[in-house]
Amino acid sequence: MQIASTEIRPDTGSSELGLMRRVADGDPRAQRVLAHRLAPRVQRVARRLLANRADAEDAAQVSLMEILRSAGSFREEASIERWADRIAVRTSLRLARDQRRPPWSFGSAIEADDLGAPAPAPPDPGDTPRALMEYLAELPAARREVLVMKHALGYTTEEIAEMTGKPVGTVKDRLVAARKQVRKLIQRELRLGARKGDRDVG
Fold this sequence. Notes:
Blueprint: H1 16-24, H2 28-49, H3 53-69, H4 80-98, H5 132-136, H6 141-152, H7 157-164, H8 168-201
Helix pairs in contact: 1-2, 2-3, 2-4, 3-4, 4-7, 6-8, 7-8
């Protein structure tokens, strides 16, 4: 006796917008199809952004629920995957902020040099006064979002504009402002540290 496959497959005869409309209407099968399609991607985004694995798993679950709830807002300005990435990024960052975690684990994806941040004095020129993610936590949400998408997730400026529904010029302005703000924060702390060191020596 042949056993029917339980694998969930999307209806290839329907459009992306049609799928999202069915999800928004509460169609259980469409919701399963969308969740099955996006779960691995959402988990990767959450794990890329959150240092704690349990936090990342929670963020991925919350992100999927938010994606299902927000399906009615999908307008095909971007692919479903890129639209979902934006929700996953925002949800993960919001959860980290609300839980007051020492927040994100960008690994080596964002380096001070990438942001134009000045290197401090030897002997360890790669260091900054604080971990870089602590400076990112001080950025306004709109600046932090584009900076994370650009440097942690590797999206181009044009892709970020498509995902966020903002003009390319706006995304570029936010990236420039975010880098300047991070650079200013680091420079200020380096100056304060230098002054403190001079006083300690004196």
